[in-house]
Design a protein that fits this description.
By secondary structure, this protein is of the alpha/beta class. The chain has 3 domains: 53 residues, Orthogonal Bundle (434 Repressor (Amino-terminal Domain)), CATH 1.10.260; 122 residues, Rossmann fold (3-Layer(aba) Sandwich); 133 residues, Response regulator (Rossmann fold), CATH 3.40.50.2300. The chain has 12 helices and 12 strands. It has a 6-stranded parallel beta sheet, sandwiched between helices. Strands 7-6-8-9-10-12 form a 6-stranded mixed beta sheet, sandwiched between helices. α7 links the parallel β3 and β4. α1 crosses α3 and α5 runs parallel beside α12. Keywords: DNA-binding, Transcription, Transcription regulation.
Length: 338
């Protein structure tokens, strides 16, 4: 008896549509944009897919859609908990929407080489947290037909970004420390070529002048592209020994604040009894019961907000500028005393 070649034929989306009693277009929507299809219809299609053992032809779907369903994320290093939180949120949401995420890790030194690698991959979209304030690659990004968005940091041209108000965040840190009765402040910041560090520092020093009627002098500022723990600790210990009054350190990021907690503990200096510490970002680790870092930030994950907007832009072919600045708030925990 001849073999039944028909029974061995690989099931197609037409077969799925016929079994589920829907159109082939509906099957396609369920596979590519399930959130746009009613739950009952989705369940019928999924049941038909399972019953038939249907496997979508990804290559065919890419040819039809003109997309690879790949997004490239350029993230900062994972020793910073901000990037741990944002990377996890970005990958989770992108996966839910049917996208793969290629992750490239960069710092401010090798960022231009990472850009070249990312753009050579021709992803459907580019999401990045490392763009510099006057980054020359920005002109190339505008010319390419690749949707992109930055989060946390932004370019000076204010195009396609999600951030919270960094100037206000720096301002709020200074106001909060003054309100808590701290008389002597020390600022620890980072690379002023990045909008986050630049605006947080500017907000802090402007408010310091207003509230403390003085300028931040170089001996109470540590600002470096790459934090040198030995130099930083030496400067802090000198300030601590020579400065009277209730003391606090304002850190430009929660990552820096967490480093400071460890450094001071190793020196036998207790927080908040002897030195208060306050950060900016509100990373998830800051809420840990053994840390309880007082910080300024937002309850929103900036990476998650950005990836949602980027995918919408990709799928709707929307070229409208995304410019979102969220308002920060104080999360008062345990690293400051009243």
């Amino acid at each position: 008896m001849p073999k039944n070649t028909r029974s061995q034929k690989r099931p197609s989306s037409v077969d799925v549509a016929r079994l589920a009693k829907v159109s082939q277009a509906t099957v396609s929507r369920v596979l590519n944009h399930p959130e746009k299809v009613e739950a009952t219809t989705r369940e019928r299609v999924y049941a038909a897919i399972t019953q038939l053992g249907y496997v979508p032809n990804q290559n065919a779907r890419q040819l039809v859609s003109g997309r690879s369903n790949v997004i490239t994320l350029i993230s900062g290093p994972l020793e910073n908990p901000f990037f741990v939180d944002s990377t996890a949120a970005i990958v989770e949401h992108a996966t839910e929407r049917g996208y793969k995420v290629n992750i490239l890790f960069a710092n401010d030194i090798d960022i231009h080489e990472i850009y070249k690698l990312a753009l050579a991959q021709r992803p459907d979209g580019l999401i990045m947290s490392c763009i510099l304030y006057d980054d020359p690659i920005f002109e190339q990004l505008k010319e390419l037909n690749i949707p992109f968005i930055s989060f946390n940091r932004r370019h000076q041209e204010k195009l396609n970004y999600v951030e919270f108000d960094n100037f206000l965040a720096g301002r709020m840190v200074c106001q909060w420390l003054k309100m808590k009765g701290y008389q002597s402040l020390f600022w620890v910041g980072g690379n002023l070529k990045a909008s986050t560090f630049l605006y947080r520092f500017n907000g802090f020093i402007e408010t310091y002048r207003q509230l403390y009627l003085a300028d931040l002098t170089s001996d109470i500022i540590y600002q470096a592209e790459h934090l040198d723990e030995e130099i930083l600790l030496s400067q802090i210990m000198q300030w601590y020994a020579q400065t009277p009054g209730k003391k606090a350190i304002a850190a430009a990021t929660d990552s820096i604040a967490l480093q400071l907690l460890s450094l001071l503990k190793n020196k036998g200096i207790h927080c908040p009894e002897e030195i208060g510490i306050m950060g900016i970002d509100n990373v998830e680790l800051a809420q840990h019961a053994y840390i309880e870092l007082t910080t300024v930030g937002t309850s929103h994950n900036l990476g998650e907000v950005a990836i949602k907007l980027l995918i919408d832009q990709i799928e709707m072919h929307d070229t409208q500028n995304i410019a979102i600045t969220l308002q920060p708030e104080v999360f008062d925990r345990g690293t400051l005393r009243s």
